[in-house]
Amino acid sequence: MKDERRRSTRIFFAVVAILLLTAAGVAVWKAASQSNVGEPVTQEDAEILLEETVAYAKAGDYDGLCRSLATEPSVCRQLAEDARAQAPSTGGAHPAVTGFTADAGQFSLNRVSVLHLRGTRADGTQYTSDFAVVRRPSEGGRQVSSLTPVYWSGVKYSAGQPCKDGEHQGDACGANTRKIAP
User: Fold this and answer.
1) Which of 16, 113, 138, 152 could form a Cys-Cys staple with 143, CB 3.0–4.6 A?
2) Which range among 17-26, 28-37, 55-64 has the greatest average pLDDT?
3) Residue 48 covered by a domain
């Protein structure tokens, strides 16, 4: 009888130890996941990436644009192919930045920032679009890339979830957008 109690006690403590270790592992994993979320891209860095993107687009180098600047090159190539007929204006004016959302949601473990644009295509039609950008891990640290580099297509970014920033926790994305006068 004594041996049976000892055995039951050992099993009980083994189960409790396993549960405690599992809970500790989950807590450590969750903390590590949240700490890997990068800082959102600044407006200045987003505008620098937009300038590079505009240069590729005006040159008609959609493959170079997608290979060099897109977060998802294969998706970018498909969007660029679909939007080729609506080419951006090759002369003069760049798209105007009409607003900036500093923290529009999250893509993978990367926080998304968005430049809101207005511009004119080569055929004279106007568009408004979102140029969503993230910092993604790279060998040299974190590189800025675009989720929506085919800006002239009129694409709008949607996080599919509430925005996450200090002031607008749980609000719809765009609630923390700063409008910029043209």
Assistant:
1) 138
2) 55-64
3) yes
CATH of the domain at 98: 3.10.450
Helix-helix angle 43-58:62-69, to 10 degrees: 150
Instruction: Compute the residue count for the chain.
Output: 182
Domain that holds residue 114: 43-179
Asked whether residue 4 is domain-assigned, the answer is: no
47 phi and psi, to 5 degrees? -70, -35
- If one counts the domains in the chain, the total is 1
pTM: 0.67
Distance in angstroms (rounded) separating the CA atoms of residues 174 and 25: 36
